[in-house]
Amino acid sequence: MTILSTSYIKISLYFHVTLFLLLSLTNSESQQEHSILLKIKLHLQNPSFLTHWNSSNTSYCSWPEIACTTGSVTGLTLVNHAIAQTIPSFICDLKNLTHVDFSQNLIPGEFPKDLFKCSNLEYLDLSLNNFVGKIPYDIQSLVHLQYLNLGSTNFDGEIPSSIGELKDLRFLHLQYCLFNETFHFEGKFLKILEIWLHWRNWIYQEII
Ligand SMILES: *[C@@H]1O[C@H](CO)[C@@H](O)[C@H](O)[C@H]1NC(C)=O
Ligand SMILES: *[C@@H]1O[C@H](CO)[C@@H](O)[C@H](O)[C@H]1NC(C)=O
Ligand SMILES: *[C@@H]1O[C@H](CO)[C@@H](O)[C@H](O)[C@H]1NC(C)=O
Ligand SMILES: *[C@@H]1O[C@H](CO)[C@@H](O)[C@H](O)[C@H]1NC(C)=O
């Protein structure tokens, strides 16, 4: 009897410690995501459209700009807010991001290469911003990309042929940029449905 209850206590203790560890792990991950979001807000210089992103409101999955899957941030949509800061370099600390939309802002600078650390990224919209320079060749590191819109920016030069290596890409929008119209895609688009490329007009192509 004593032996039985001792081992029962041991098992029960083990179970509760494990449960506690699991819960605190989940909890600290969500605290971490919350603090990353507050850091993003700070980086954007505490704009008034983000007053609801604050430390007293920890239910960030209910913030309109955030999408979550099983309690973890997967989408960030900050569209048409006249954002004039760069994309935060630590944005991919939100490890489960699949959807990033910063379209219709005034974001300056080069292509934000820090986005390459978002290894799960499927949807990227940076259109209608003030970006300059080239699209980096290593755009191909975003292997899960399905939608890419870099239109209406000042990206110039050659469109990197490595875009052709993005096998899941279905939508490629590069209209109204300063590209020099020469483009050669390496690899094969396996699934592409729509390409908009032209400098003034857009070209619609279906290449399934
Ligand atoms: C925090 O956000 C809530 C809405 O979620 C808002 O009611 C409150 O005023 C905010 N607090 C501060 C200090 O801005
Ligand atoms: C947190 O913010 C969301 C969106 O602004 C709001 O719907 C929710 O009621 C807020 N929660 C608290 C506890 O303030
Ligand atoms: C990302 O998602 C996975 C699987 O759903 C989950 O186990 C993990 O806790 C999430 N990461 C964060 C930082 O919340
Ligand atoms: C396009 O740009 C590339 C690299 O900047 C250059 O090598 C090429 O000659 C340009 N082509 C045209 C048609 O301007």
UniProtKB/TrEMBL annotation:
Signal sequence span is 1-28
| Top-level taxonomic group | Eukaryota
The Leucine-rich repeat-containing N-terminal plant-type domain sits at 31-69
Q: Which UniProt keywords apply?
A: Leucine-rich repeat, Repeat, Signal
Where does the protein end up? Cell envelope
Name the family the entry cites.
Belongs to the polygalacturonase-inhibiting protein family.
Name used for this protein in its record: Leucine-rich repeat-containing N-terminal plant-type domain-containing protein
This protein's species is Vicia faba
Q: Provide the taxonomic classification.
A: Eukaryota, Viridiplantae, Streptophyta, Embryophyta, Tracheophyta
